[in-house]
Write a structure and sequence with these properties.
Elements (H helix, E strand, L loop, with lengths): L2 H4 L2 E5 L5 H9 L4 E5 L2 H9 L5 E8 L3 E2 L3 H8 L2 E9 L3 E4 L10 E4 L1 H6 L1 H6 L3 E4 L3 H11 L4 E5 L1 H7 L2 E4 L9 E8 L16 E9 L5 H11 L4 E9 L2 E12 L5 H12 L1 E11 L2 H10 L1
Parallel strand pairs: 1-2, 1-3, 7-8, 7-9
Antiparallel strand pairs: 3-4, 3-11, 5-11, 6-9, 6-10, 12-14, 12-15, 13-14
Keywords: Amino-acid biosynthesis, Aromatic amino acid biosynthesis, Lyase, Phenylalanine biosynthesis
Protein name: prephenate dehydratase
Pathway: Amino-acid biosynthesis; L-phenylalanine biosynthesis; phenylpyruvate from prephenate: step 1/1
């Protein structure tokens, strides 16, 4: 693969047609999407030069954070350069010529099966577990059985030649997954997103020092300097209860005076601090804030 080809490739986890593939099409439509078996394979594709960027899901509005991803990010050696939000639209997909009344079973990942309980119950369709969403669509295409359908993204139907029998069948219409776009090199140069909004995001992980009220004191610098922290999550390191690492997202750029002061105060109370990336806030954040107001 030549350097020119590498610069046009973005890696994702899953089969073609997965929601991560949809995220690649939405946020990097000019790049070739490279499917990978695991999150580790996605990261290695970028580190090894097979791809320029990685598309990684980090959290879902219904199911919370994606398992294991926060453990992988600090050790990946990659840097967050963008974020993106993909609405989880679920379609019932079947082989061409199938009528909805003919479908008796629907295959998908357990998470998607749980998000379509109402639809499946109304149509007396039994859910069966598949490896993943796009993989289920591929399996349905191979079997050619009209009584068996797949629950997946419309993109999967397009790729595997399936017919969409029903669209947007998820129980919750605001179900959204957040993705991070990662690169080998950081980019601190930007100061606005594609719509001209100057809100920047900074993501980092840290461990507090072993002193009383260390986390409380570490967080105080963000409050006193007026820095909005949009996410703070903790997780164990190496399965040890006494070793806790925190992941945080804040609004602002490390070069902003108030953010610099807050990070300096945080550094005093931590044993390690690693900035994972600085990137423009996705426009969806501003729209949701306006709706909430």
């Amino acid at each position: 693969m030549t350097d020119a080809t590498q610069s046009k490739v973005i890696a994702f986890q899953g089969e073609p047609g997965a929601y991560s593939h949809q995220a690649c099409r939405s946020y990097r439509p000019d790049m070739e999407a490279l499917p990978c078996r695991t999150f580790e394979d996605v990261i290695e594709a970028v580190r090894g030069g097979r791809a320029e960027l990685a598309m990684l899901p980090v959290e879902n509005s219904t199911y919370g954070r994606v398992a294991d991803i926060h453990h992988l990010l600090p050790e990946s050696g990659l840097h967050i350069i963008d974020e993106g939000f993909v609405r989880v639209r679920i379609s019932l997909l079947a082989v061409p010529g199938t009528q909805l009344a003919e479908v008796r079973e629907a295959m998908s990942h357990p998470v998607l099966l749980g998000q379509c309980r109402g639809f499946l119950r109304r149509h007396e369709i039994r859910g069966i577990v598949g490896a993943d969403t796009a993989g289920s669509a591929l399996e349905i295409s191979r079997r050619g059985n009209k009584s068996l359908a797949a629950l997946a993204a419309p993109l999967a139907g397009e790729i595997y030649g399936l017919e969409e029998l029903a669209a947007d069948i998820e129980d919750r219409q605001n179900n959204t997954t957040r993705f991070l776009i990662m690169s080998r090199q950081p980019d601190f140069s930007r100061r606005s997103n594609r719509e001209g909004d100057g809100t920047m995001m900074t993501s980092f992980v840290f461990r507090v020092r072993n002193i009383p009220a260390a986390l409380y004191k570490a967080m105080g610098g963000f409050a006193t300097n007026g820095v909005n922290m949009t996410k703070l999550e903790s997780y164990m390191v190496d399965g040890v209860f006494t070793a806790t690492q925190f992941y945080a997202d804040i609004e602002g750029h490390p070069e902003d005076a108030n953010v610099a002061r807050a990070l300096e105060e945080l550094d005093y109370f931590t044993s390690s601090l690693n900035v994972l990336g600085v990137y423009p806030a996705d426009p969806l954040r501003a729209r949701q804030l306006a709706q909430a107001g």
